[in-house]
């Protein structure tokens, strides 16, 4: 056994192990976010941060350690610059001529939940873990939501 001059460091055989969070021992909270007059990208990055669990000290990259996020007033999200007309969302059916294009302004009017969900989805991992994290995101137009029983904490962004 080798003794180091620094009293805080340990010998090589007695090093501490890195904590790895297990799926069953993660404590999940519920957060409520009011999307009224928030910028889409900044809101989506903060939501993705919470869904992944990176704000917790027990964050483990290969485990879902994130919290549930409820978003209300999704129709009041704002976009900067000329993104309402210039930003285009594409989807492809897989058939010839099956490429569909939708402007962000039209998507905000018709499906504001999908606009935010798409932005958050692009900031999560592209695998099974990312799909599980996206299921913890609940988006609603208007100020009401059916998750009052979970006692969500208001998240001020």
The overall average pLDDT, rounded, is 93
Show unreliable segments.
none
Largest sheet: 4 strands, parallel
Architecture (CATH level 2) name of the domain at 27-78 and 112-154? Alpha-Beta Complex
What is the assigned CATH homologous superfamily of the domain at 27-78 and 112-154? Ribosomal protein L13
Coarse morphology: globular
The largest beta-sheet arranges its strands as 5-2-1-6
Radius of gyration: 21 Å
**Total E-strand runs:** 6
Please characterize this protein's 3D structure.
This protein has 157 residues and is an alpha/beta fold. The protein has a domain at 27-78 and 112-154: Ribosomal Protein L13p, Chain: A (Alpha-Beta Complex). Helices cover 26% and strands 16% of the residues. It is built from 5 helices and 6 strands, in the order βαβαββαααββ. The strands form 2 sheets. Strands 5-2-1-6 form a 4-stranded parallel β-sheet, with helices on one face. The chain has a two-stranded antiparallel sheet with strand order 3-4. Strand 1 (30-34), helix 1 (40-52) and strand 2 (68-72) form a beta-alpha-beta unit. Helix 1 (40-52) packs across helix 4 (112-121) and helix 3 (104-110) crosses helix 4 (112-121). The longest helix has 13 residues, at 40-52. It is globular and about 60 Å long. The N and C termini lie far apart (51 Å).
């Amino acid at each position: 056994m080798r003794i180091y001059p620094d009293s805080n460091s340990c010998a090589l055989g007695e090093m501490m192990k890195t904590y790895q969070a297990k799926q069953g021992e993660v404590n999940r909270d519920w957060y409520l976010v009011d999307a009224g007059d928030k910028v889409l990208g900044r809101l989506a990055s903060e939501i993705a941060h919470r869904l992944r669990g990176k704000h917790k000290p027990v964050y483990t990259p290969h485990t879902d350690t994130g919290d549930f996020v409820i978003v209300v007033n999704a129709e009041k999200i704002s976009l900067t610059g000329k993104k309402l007309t210039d930003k285009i969302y594409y989807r492809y059916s897989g058939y010839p001529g099956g490429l569909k294009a939708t402007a962000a302004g039209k998507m905000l009017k018709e499906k504001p939940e999908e606009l935010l969900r798409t932005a958050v989805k692009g900031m999560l991992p592209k695998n099974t873990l990312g799909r599980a994290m996206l299921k913890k995101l609940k988006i609603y137009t208007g100020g009401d939501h059916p998750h009052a029983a979970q006692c969500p904490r208001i998240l001020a962004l």
